């Protein structure tokens, strides 16, 4: 009887293995098995790069163990050559194999960098499913706030906080900015991450190939509420997306400039909010950092600078900076530099038609960077762009 008790039962031996299963439940393979075509291509790039590198790593690790065992001191049958110092064949293998791997990695990376450029409009929604020329992507304007996400749908005239809904099998174009510090917009199931920066606009193109509920989050530390800066992502069919838009319009709230200034103040664990109407060109005011009434927009300031400045009279055209990013830069009383120029007679913010996207993506094989050869005339579009650039006033 004592002998039987001294031996642990078989079922108790399996307890450590069973305890590991809850840990495995936390594994999320969404990066390698996403719901979007762009993210799937990025996942495939990770797999191809990993396999190419393992072609070197695995043989090296195996040969390390083999040589340590084959030429151990106890093995008297191993060849002993204390004066050996060179082998042409071995040198060729040592240098040629990694060089070929680097060439392959370089070629794959170069092609993927251009084809998966976040600014590049999509050419397909899935393998073998090109996008029709008449299909226009859905525009979503994204603003990273402290510590929440604001999504504006200019075509639908609605906005949401911490909730993003998109129709499946339809391309989407994100225009992304931030209100204060730099952040990073990331939906693993849709596409790769891209930074959101104040006073700047970045773009991201993507498409969902299946319906479902997913998660997006901030991938760049931005302060105390960063860990909870997550938002729900819904991939819906066409009918479901239309119903969601209708439900959002029934909420009754309006997102104007005053509402935005109240919304952008720091808050953590912000609940989902919906706005039935949005003030036109609010996003462009956010990018130009002139949501505050009377504050000059950056595009106005740059236009004045490009024209040679506002002259000596512009020295007196300043107002005290009473609000500029809650308790942040410029909010301290004091120096001359803690002021901003008030709005002059300025041009309106750029409309959507005045901010064209890049040229539609071609499915032809990628053969170069698309730059004209030295000595050749520039393309007509480039000539028109140069002609439209601002020039100093005479």
How many β-strand runs?
17
Low-confidence region ranges:
1-6, 320-338, 366-371, 376-394
Helix content: 25-40%
Q: Would you give the CATH topology of the largest domain?
A: Immunoglobulin-like
- Our Rg estimate from Cα atoms comes to 29 Å
Which term fits the overall shape?
elongated
What is the CA–CA distance across the termini? 107 Å
CATH superfamily of the largest domain: Cupredoxins -  blue copper proteins
Order of helix and strand elements from N to C terminus: HHHHHEEEEEEEEEEEEHEHEEHHEEH
Count up the helices: 10
Overall structural class, as computed from helix and strand content, comes to alpha+beta
Largest sheet: number of strands, sense, barrel closure = 6 strands, mixed
CATH class of the largest domain: Mainly Beta
In which order are the strands of the major sheet placed?
Answer: 10-7-3-4-5-14
The residue-averaged pLDDT reads: 78
Number of domains: 3
Strand content: 15-25%
Named at the architecture level, the CATH assignment of the largest domain is Sandwich
Main location: membrane
InterPro entries: CcO_II, CcO_II-like_C, COX_ARM, Cupredoxin, CuRO_UO_II, Cyt_c_oxidase_su2_TM_dom, Cyt_c_oxidase_su2_TM_sf, Cyt_o_ubiquinol_oxidase_su2
GO biological process, one term: ATP synthesis coupled electron transport
GO cellular component, one term: plasma membrane
Q: Can you describe what's shown?
A:
The chain is an alpha+beta fold and 394 residues long. The protein has 3 domains: 37-75 and 86-115; 124-287, Cupredoxins -  blue copper proteins (Immunoglobulin-like), CATH 2.60.40.420; 298-347, no CATH class. The protein has 10 helices and 17 strands. The longest helix has 34 residues, at 37-70.
